[in-house]
Amino acid sequence: MLNQETIQAILGIKNKVYIKAEEMADKMNIAFFPWEEKNISPEILYFAKKLKKTFEEMKANIVPYEESLTKVSIFKTWKFVLKILINNLFYLSSIIFGLSQKRHYFNLDSIAYLFKRTKIKKGISVVVLGEQTSENLPMQYINSFKDNSIITILDFPKNISEKSSFHEHFDTALALFAHHMTNIVIGVDKEKWILYNFNASHPVFSIEKNFRENILHALVPKIVAPIYPCKISEFVILKKFFDIADENHKNQVKDLVEGALLFNKTSLYPAGKKIGDLPFRNNFYRWIVKRYLDNRNGMSYGFLAMQLPSKISPLLTVLEYQKLIGRETEDDYMKHNDELFIKINLDKTYWLKVPEVWVLSQKSGSDKTHVNPKTDLIKMGLSGGKMFLQTQKDSIVDNDYKTSFDTQVILAHAIGNAIIASVLAHINPNSNFLKQYKSHGISISHWHGYIHPEHIPKGWYIHGVANPHVACSSPQSAIYALDGKLRSFKESLDSDIEYKGDIHIEPHHGTNICFISVVELAQYLLNDPDASVLGSSYYSLYNK
To answer: Closest by alpha carbon to 136, among 242, 186, 65, 57?
Structure first.
């Protein structure tokens, strides 16, 4: 229904985003970290050479390692050193005065890492072979967490087999990420390779069969579209507080609290991990990861969110729109007085002011199945392409408000629901989806598993199966969410099955589903235990 440029304007994504795997490969810059063959197993070496040849065939830019390096300014180096010294001062002060301790102490060896001014240029990702020493981990050479990815090729984990559970893969992957300080781990043996990234997935592929296709669709997107959570600085923070107990929020808060407890019985939400408990080699690398994760202390997988009811925007005829803004336009979207209007093509062309949306969501790292409304809920909004944050009274934004890794996906689904509700108000005022949206809102939920294709409730439309396998939090994932939702809605208009919601499949990641409420979704899954399970066992059923 909408082109990519319009979708990016709605979501406030300003940079060029590549959404096709072939485009991603063509724009990818890769360097191979120096290695000595005597320290690398034959399996790793064979895979690495095959991978490099495949990258070349895809027209990826292979950069000689020496040419990937640059020198950072001495000012930037001393800036980081000063931050470390101040951190140590606060650490020691906390001990002296008996205060609670949230910092780590950095010894001289850790500080010495900062004086290594040779760094890898922004936009170049690095492939690393095998085990590296603590002093030579590539993470200390990268220039930008957002623009440099590290891919480490290792021997296949000895504790992993075809019978390994989601939790075994989950624990293994996080331990490998922390020990090797890498974004992606590839484990290889003579016949197969496994791919771990922060999506908590664990696809296994043959080395000889469909190698190029799997590299293109499963690995390349995770390199080009890495995980990178939204920072507080990306939000407009409102001065007015919100009250979880008032008429505008209490029903949705109740639904989240009760629904979360029901979801605890489904086993779809694994226990989170504290960053401090992961096996980092020293506090310097632990600090690096905390900075990468915007000072988050932990990670928990999945989310439960509740979109609040909001105003419906009327569809305007072309003449009504032109009268409103005072001129004609042939563009597909237009900003007018800080409001965004988009073109909608139905039986004829209409214009729609993109509605403002607000969502109550669980904060990053919280226990997803036991919600404390006073500490765990965040209110996020999207309007005119800008993200907003509203806090509860007495909350400290920097400490209490770490938004979900999937923030942009949550808001993409919310804005899509608002657009669909506005269209339904024009073409089908008696729609059940519209009535639910206006009276109670819509739940938006995500877990790292899939719904069995034969157990999908009637009226829910599926999309996303064929998308590249990007990392969560990437702008691509938000674009896929909104585009797929609107295409599903368009499909429903051509069908005799009423639109009730959508199921957004994220390959090698999990499922987003918009439902009547969190409670009703949890009850549906509890009444039908085979409908969904944690992990990827049902994902292959969508590709038959």
So the answer is: 65
Check if the beta carbon of residue 54 is closer than 8 Å to that of residue 211: yes
- Position 259 confidence tier, pLDDT thresholds 50, 70, 90: very high
Closest CA to 425 of 412, 438, 413: 438
Q: Which of 53-57, 111-115, 329-333, 539-543 has the lowest mean pLDDT?
A: 111-115
Beta strands at 192-196 and 184-188: parallel, antiparallel or unpaired: antiparallel
Query: Can you read off the two tokens belonging to residue 165?
Result: 């559970």
CATH class for the region spanning 232-268+305-311+361-543 = alpha beta
Q: Give pLDDT tens digits for 124-164.
A: 999 999 999 888 888 888 877 778 899 999 999 999 998 99
Domain ranges, ordered by start, for the chain: 4-72+117-224, 232-268+305-311+361-543, 314-353
Sequence-distant (≥ 6) Cβ neighbours of residue 534 within 8 angstroms: 166, 267, 268, 270, 447, 448, 449
pTM of the model: 0.91
* Helices and strands (H and E) in the chain: how many: 17, 26
Cα distances (Å, whole numbers) of residue 394 to 240, 245, 250, 358:
12, 15, 19, 21
- Name the amino acid, one letter, at 93: S
